[in-house]
Write a structure and sequence with these properties.
heterodimer; A: about 250 residues; alpha/beta; B: about 525 residues; Hypothetical Protein Pfu-838710-001; CHAD domain; ten-stranded antiparallel β-sheet; 17 helices; about 15% strand; globular
């Protein structure tokens, strides 16, 4: 079982769109996939039409595993399950803070789902907290959407800086370009600059697309309603590239 | 009712009539996804080898599917084990070209051929039930099986209710709604429905049926019952012979006729002597019509075995012979089936059936009203003693005729034990038959080797074959002779056991009756 996370410090960069469509593409590729919506906004759950998770007590890893398991919902697409978001997840930090090895507990919890899934995909909230640190230490790859703009460039630098400070393995970070407008000169220049600075950048990128925005309208992954549009093909190419990463 | 499909507790329900999605529309939004109808042909053998082996085989769109016949039928057509796309005809297991279907069928079919047993049309609709937010919360797979050329006669609607993980309460509610409209649980799949509709019921087939005999019943009644039952089995085999579906129909038909002839000679004097004689003659005549075809079947079935006995270089030498046998067989099938269908043969068979029917009137005969038990026991014990006597003269150099006489006597004893097995205690019966069967197997092998040598010589004389063929035949005859000689030792071993003190004691205890009973068997006073 592999754990992937869709993560960005900055919001509105296509993080949830990645989680939802990558989960769909993984299941299309035959991988039993569980999408865990850790973002209290619950956008990923919304796209899958799944109601918020029932509240459960989070006292220790055991109760956490039980609560998460009870909240697994089968999506409309066989082979893809979702654990919807819950406002209670904001207490994750407090729970984790009280535990021994508090930065590594999430991996331990997710290992419990190993027999049932090939991939667990985490849709993370846009911040750096103790939960984020757990995500970093649990993941086999951290997928970071980056819009080729100056601000996004800055947040990526913040993230890599954090990894250095905390001595986290920087090769886990797998940034990729999101919402790319190829006609935009600045986009092209920033893309070239960042790719030369970060060798871990994924080659596939997601173009800016109105089709992606319609996900909220249809309440399903883009790949489910528009199989062949440019963005759909891009998500599939990204999925293929991720699956062929040496660390997976 | 609840069984797992892909790890989920699903529920299979039979629906009264075409329920349609309307009954569920009040609570869920129902999306229907129809599928193309499929014509299914189900296959099995005369003996229902697949059915009784817990399997079913159907073909649809040029693909054969082998499934297990699951109880509960959550998978309505059973759980598929394997399939094969059919390019040519598939009748015998050896006609299938791929594993594992070939191997699996070999065990269940043996020498039997497949024939269609039912045909129907299967329509499948998938329903997705969505809740108020549009999320699928339950899935249904609805199957309809119908008969008739265009599937106009709907036999059964069935549906599998499949829950989605995390939405199990919806499953319970769907089942409740369907139950309210009359849905019920049923183990029957499409094959069961189609068979019921066509009035077919898989019946176990055996050449050794129970006759319902009692020790004290009049001998004529017992013989009539035995013969009537065996003739019915013979009759059931006739369509398969005429269709030439496989070789076992003729094989079993001939065994039946032979058994009927035997029972008449083994239990003497139950009918007036002239009538018994003419019946035996008529049965012999029916049997003789099929002699040549059966001989050819035997040679052709043994083809691989024969070829395996020769070194590879000599094997092509026998190609001509087997090609001759094969074309002879085609001709012989036409001749035999025409003969069997001729008015004279049909009349003969009807006469025989009429003679042995319970309503038939016959003149008096000395043993007709004697109790069958003592009569048979006396006959069995005599037969056993005769075998012991013959055994004393059997050695490594006994002429073939001597061994042949022993074989015939063993066969008589075997038939007696088989026909009247209901009168013999089970435990003793099993041990006696076991040792007799072993002896008969070796005697059979001896006889086959002897007969085959003669037939091959005869073929060579008749055809005046080329040197190469003669070489192959010579090689084969030499091997068969050697096999026959080797068998003699095995026969002597088996005889020692069969005639030994332990077996002798069992036969004596089981069949040697006290004097008054033995006398009764002769004079007509019969109480066990």
């Amino acid at each position: 079982m592999k754990i992937l996370s869709s993560y960005s410090i900055k919001g509105g960069v296509g993080k949830t769109a990645l989680a939802v469509n990558l989960a769909f593409a993984l299941r299309e590729a035959g991988h039993r996939t569980l999408l865990l919506d850790l973002d209290p906004q619950g956008a990923a759950s919304f796209y899958f039409r799944v109601d918020s998770a029932e509240k459960f007590r989070m006292q220790d890893t055991k109760s956490l595993v039980q609560g998460l398991r009870r909240n697994i919902r089968e999506s409309d697409f066989p082979g893809l399950d979702v654990i919807p978001s819950n406002l209670g997840y904001r207490h994750f930090d407090i729970l984790l803070d009280g535990m021994a090895k508090r930065r590594r507990q999430l991996r331990k919890v997710l290992e419990e789902f190993k027999p049932d899934y090939d991939v667990i995909l985490l849709d993370c909230p846009p911040n750096i907290t103790l939960l984020s640190e757990n995500v970093f230490r649990a993941s086999d790859a951290i997928l970071v959407p980056v819009i080729p703009t100056v601000l996004s460039k800055r947040t990526l630098e913040q993230l890599t800086g954090f990894f250095q400070e905390e001595e986290l393995p920087h090769q886990l970070l797998r940034p990729f370009f999101s919402m790319v407008q190829k006609r935009n000169k600045m986009h092209r220049e920033i893309m070239a600059e960042l790719q030369s600075q970060h060798p871990g950048f994924l080659k596939a990128f997601i173009p800016f697309s109105a089709d992606v925005e319609k996900m909220g309208l249809y309440r399903m992954p883009l790949l489910a309603y528009s199989h062949t549009c440019e963005a759909a093909r891009a998500y599939r190419a990204l999925c293929d590239e991720i699956l062929s990463l040496p660390s997976l | 009712m609840g069984e797992k499909v892909q790890g989920k507790e699903c529920v299979r329900l039979a629906l009264p009539g075409d329920l349609g999605p309307d009954s569920l529309r009040g609570e869920w939004k129902v999306e229907v996804h129809p599928k193309e109808p499929r014509v299914l042909t189900f296959w099995d053998t005369f003996e229902w080898g697949l059915w009784f082996g817990g399997h079913l085989l159907y073909s649809s769109g040029g693909v054969y599917h082998l499934c297990t016949r699951d109880s509960g039928q959550v998978r309505w057509l059973g759980t598929e084990l394997c399939e094969e796309r059919a390019v040519g005809k598939r009748r015998f297991w050896s006609d299938f070209e791929t594993e594992p279907i070939r191997g699996k069928l070999e065990g269940m079919l043996g020498l039997r051929g497949l024939a269609p047993v039912a045909e129907g049309i299967l329509r499948c609709h998938k329903w997705d039930l969505r809740n108020e937010t549009g999320k699928i919360v339950c899935r249904l797979e609805c199957d309809t099986v119908s008969a008739g050329k265009r599937g106009e006669k709907v036999l059964r609607n069935s549906c599998l209710v499949i829950p989605l993980l995390g939405y199990e309460t919806d499953l319970a509610r769907v089942v409740e709604c369907l139950a309210q409209t009359g849905a019920f649980s049923s183990d029957d799949g499409p094959l069961e429905e189609l068979l019921r509709d066509a009035g077919h019921e898989p019946r176990p087939y055996t050449l050794r049926p129970a006759f319902g005999l009692e020790f004290g019943m009049p001998a004529r009644d017992a013989v009539t019952r035995i013969v009537g039952t065996i003739l019915e089995i013979a009759r059931r085999n006739v369509p398969g012979i005429l269709e030439d579906l496989d070789t076992e129909f003729l094989h079993d038909y001939r065994i039946c006729l032979r058994k009927v002839r035997s029972v008449l000679s083994l239990i003497k004097d139950v009918y007036p002597p002239g009538e018994t004689r003419s019946m035996r003659t008529e049965l012999g005549e029916l049997s003789r019509q099929t002699n040549r075809l059966r001989d050819l079947d035997v040679y052709l079935l043994a083809k691989e075995e024969y070829l395996g006995l020769l070194p590879p270089g000599l094997r092509p030498a026998l190609d001509t012979m087997f090609a001759d046998f094969s074309s002879d067989r085609s001709r012989e099938v036409r001749r035999t089936t025409a003969k069997m269908q001729s008015p004279s043969s049909q009349k003969l068979f009807q006469e025989i059936e009429g003679f042995f029917s319970a309503r038939a009137l016959h003149g008096p005969a000395p043993a007709a009203d004697l109790a069958v038990g003592p009569l048979v026991f006396l006959r069995i014990y005599k037969s056993y003693r005769k075998i012991r006597r013959l055994a004393a003269s059997i050695g490594l150099d006994t002429p073939d005729e001597g061994v042949h006489e022993l074989r015939i006597e063993c066969k008589k004893l075997r038939y007696l034990l088989e026909f009247f097995s209901e009168l013999v205690p089970g435990k003793q019966y099993a041990s006696m038959v076991k040792s007799l069967r072993r002896l008969q197997n070796w005697l059979g092998e001896f006889n086959d080797a002897s007969v085959q040598q003669k037939s091959l010589m005869e073929y060579w004389r008749r055809k005046g074959s080329a040197t190469e063929v003669a070489l192959g035949l010579g090689g084969l005859i030499a091997i068969l002779y050697e096999r026959q000689q080797r068998t003699r030792c095995n026969i002597l071993d088996a005889l020692r056991e069969f005639c030994g003190a332990a077996n002798h004691a069992t036969f004596r205890q089981s069949f040697k009756l006290a004097e008054p009973l033995a006398a009764g068997a002769v004079k007509g006073h019969s109480e066990p």
